[in-house]
Automatic annotation (TrEMBL):
Cofactors that this protein relies on: Mn(2+); Ni(2+)
Pfam families associated with the record: ARMT1-like_dom
Keyword match Hydrolase: yes
Record field: catalytic activity: beta-D-fructose 6-phosphate = dihydroxyacetone + D-glyceraldehyde 3-phosphate; beta-D-fructose 1-phosphate + H2O = D-fructose + phosphate
Stored InterPro entries: ARMT-1-like_metal-bd_sf, ARMT1, ARMT1-like_metal-bd
UniProt lineage: Eukaryota, Fungi, Dikarya, Ascomycota, Saccharomycotina
Example of a GO biological process term: DNA damage response
GO cellular component, one term: nucleus
Name of the molecule in the record: Sugar phosphate phosphatase
Function: Metal-dependent phosphatase that shows phosphatase activity against several substrates, including fructose-1-phosphate and fructose-6-phosphate. Its preference for fructose-1-phosphate, a strong glycating agent that causes DNA damage rather than a canonical yeast metabolite, suggests a damage-control function in hexose phosphate metabolism.
Family according to the record: Belongs to the damage-control phosphatase family. Sugar phosphate phosphatase III subfamily.
Annotated source species: Hanseniaspora valbyensis NRRL Y-1626
Length: 259
C-alpha cells in the first residue's frame, strides 16, 4: 500500500511530468467532457495493476455519467504473459469482493462494477483481431492469404467504433501498430503517422511508455539529441546505445487525434 501511495503522490506525479514528451492530456479530457457520444472504448494492454486502473477509469466515466457505457477490449489469447484477458478482469473483481469484506468502500465499488457488467454499462470484448499479426493500417484490408473470417472480424471492430466518443489505446505495442510499425523520423506529426482513412473515423487517444524505436511527435531534432545525451548519463548498462533512449521505458507519450 505504501508503494502505491508513493506512485500516486503529487510529488511523484510532478517529477514524472517532464518525462511525458507529448502530453495531450488536457485537450483529450476537454474533448471527452465537451462532446457528444455515449461510449468510450479502451483497448487494454496489461493485466494486474494496469487493468485495475483501467477498470477504475471505466467506473469513474460511467458512475459520474460522463458516458453511458465503457467497452474494454481484451485479448482472447495473450502475446505475452502480462496481456490482459477476460478471466483476468473477473479474477480482479473476485479479489475486490474479498477485499470488500474488510472495507465497505471497496465493496461498494465491487458491487457497482458487477451492476455495470450485468446492465451492459461495462462490456468486455475479446475480438480475435487484437491478437492478429496485422498493424492497424490494415483496418480497411488484409493480405490476400488471410482467412475469410478475418474480414468479418475487421468489420466488427470498425462497426463497434462508429459511435464511440473516443478509443483509448493502451501500451507500446498498440502505439507501434497505430503508426504502422514504421521507422518514422521522430519529428513526424502524430496525425501524419496515423493518416490511414479508417483511423481517422473516430477520436483516438494513445497512452504509451516508450519501449521501442518507433517514435513520432517530437518538436525538433534538438529534443532527440538532448534525450540521447540524458539517457547516456543515466543508463547503467554502458553497452546500450545512447540513441536507444526511446526504447528504455523512461519516457512516455499521451497522443490525441480528434479525427
Amino acid at each position: 500500500l505504501t508503494d502505491l501511495q508513493d506512485l500516486q503522490s503529487k510529488e511523484s506525479r510532478l517529477s514524472n511530468e517532464s518525462k511525458i514528451l507529448v502530453d495531450d492530456t488536457l485537450v483529450s479530457w476537454k474533448y471527452i467532457t465537451e462532446n457528444k457520444g455515449e461510449t468510450i472504448d479502451i483497448v487494454c494492454d496489461n493485466s494486474g495493476f494496469e487493468v485495475f486502473c483501467d477498470i477504475l477509469l471505466a467506473f469513474f466515466l460511467v458512475d459520474f455519467k460522463i458516458v453511458k457505457k465503457v467497452v474494454l477490449h481484451l485479448k482472447d489469447l495473450p502475446y505475452m504473459v502480462s496481456d490482459v484477458m477476460k478471466k483476468d478482469v473477473y479474477n480482479l473483481l473476485d479479489i475486490l469482493n474479498k477485499w470488500g469484506k474488510d472495507n465497505k468502500d471497496v465493496l461498494a465499488i465491487a458491487n457497482k462494477l458487477k451492476n455495470f457488467l450485468d446492465s451492459g454499462k461495462l462490456e468486455l470484448n475479446d475480438n480475435e483481431f487484437w491478437t492478429y499479426y496485422h498493424d492497424y493500417w490494415h483496418l480497411s484490408h488484409v493480405d490476400k492469404h488471410a482467412d475469410k473470417s478475418t474480414f468479418k472480424t475487421l468489420k466488427d471492430v470498425l462497426k463497434s467504433f462508429e459511435k464511440t466518443k473516443m478509443v483509448i489505446f493502451k501500451g507500446d505495442l498498440n502505439y507501434r501498430k497505430l503508426c504502422g510499425d514504421r521507422w518514422w523520423p521522430k519529428t513526424t506529426k502524430w496525425d501524419v503517422a496515423i493518416a490511414i482513412y479508417e483511423l481517422q473515423k473516430f477520436p483516438m487517444l494513445s497512452l504509451r511508455t516508450c519501449k521501442a524505436d518507433v517514435m513520432v511527435g517530437l518538436n525538433s531534432d534538438e529534443v532527440d539529441k538532448q534525450l540521447t545525451e540524458e539517457y547516456k548519463n543515466m543508463k547503467k548498462d554502458k553497452d546500450l546505445k545512447d540513441e536507444w533512449w526511446n526504447s528504455s521505458g523512461k519516457w512516455a507519450v499521451v497522443c490525441f487525434n480528434k479525427n
